Amino acid sequence: MTVRVSVFRLGRRLRLGLFNSIKPETTNCSRCLGATTLFQPRNHNQHAFYFSSSTSPFPSPFSTGQRRSMFIQTQSTPNPESLMFHPGKPVMDVGSADFPNPRSAMNSPLAKSIFAIDGITRVFFGSDFVTVTKLEDASWEFLKPEIFAAIMDFYSSGEPLFLDSQAAASKDTAIHDDDSEIVAMIKELLETRIRPAVQDDGGDIVYCGFDPDTGIVKLKMQGACSGCPSSSVTLKSGIENMLMHYVPEVKGVEQEMDAEDEEAALSGQTE
Question: In 3D, which of 82, 86, 74 has the Cα closest to residue 128?
Fold first, then answer.
């Protein structure tokens, strides 16, 4: 009951506009979280592509095969190696899904087909978009037509997004009966205020835990935010400040990294 009341009070404070009391923070990236005013909506440059196909991404005008078409939009992200693809159709019904390597994509036909394209290093599913991350030396000019074809083929195939629906998305910010009041408030902030802003940049943030002894919140960045040059600034300047402002028990935020992210960070330090 205490948890429910606390969350209700937090929601009431948010609706009263108390978030405006936080001073703006800046980052090195023009679109990263906290770039101008924290969590303000931002307009990104978008490019739309009407993609039509019969049996190949570039059909002959004399082809008699059945044509399929989709209106796919691309959107840039703060990470120059990541691009968002909006198929104009829902992607994830609930939550999000991150695929840091081809092995993790075995349960998803769409992610698996995108990984089959040379130069792709990561795939991420959001509510209505797919974020694709490439190798630094790969060119979007050559990758985009293949990604368009993979997305269009998936939606025309009628296949499910996940072969095993039980392994789809975990609701990391769901409030449980055994959650403390502090954890419930952290999850509520992440779900209602922080996650939408991060997803707007083609990524997501996952709650990994809270240590009441140290006051440290563990979070993991996904999608375009994973490996983004400004992700550490985003974590500290935007997310940490907001959590510490509304939950005094929070003393800091630390990023959890998977094996691929740790290898990338180490290779970046050695270069």
Answer: 86
CA distances in angstroms from 226 to 40, 72, 137, 151, 180, listed in the order given = 21, 24, 18, 22, 29
Superfamily of domain 2-40+179-270: Fe-S cluster assembly (FSCA) (3.30.300.130)
pLDDT one-digit tens code per residue, 89-123: 999 988 888 898 999 899 999 999 999 999 999 99
In order of 51, 111, 189, 199, 234, the CA distances from 246 in angstroms are 46, 37, 9, 21, 17
Q: What is d(CA 49, CA 53) in angstroms, rounded to the nearest whole number?
A: 12
* Architecture of domain 46-167 in this structure: 2-Layer Sandwich (3.30)
What pLDDT, on a 0 to 100 scale, did the predictor assign at position 220? 84
pLDDT at res. 44: 46
pTM of the model: 0.64
The whole-angstrom separation of Cα 134 and Cα 120 is: 4
What are the contacts of 11-18 at 24+ separation with CB within 8 A?
11/188, 11/192, 13/246, 14/192, 14/193
Task: Locate 105 and state its tokens.
Answer: 């994509």
Q: How confident is the model at residue 231 (pLDDT cuts 50, 70, 90)?
A: low
Mention every residue, 6+ apart, whose C-beta is less than 8 A from residue 184: 3, 6, 7, 175
Q: Which residues pair with residue 223 across a beta bridge?
A: 203
Ordered by start, the domain boundaries in the chain are 2-40+179-270, 46-167
With a cut of 70, say whether residue 162 has pLDDT above it.
Answer: yes
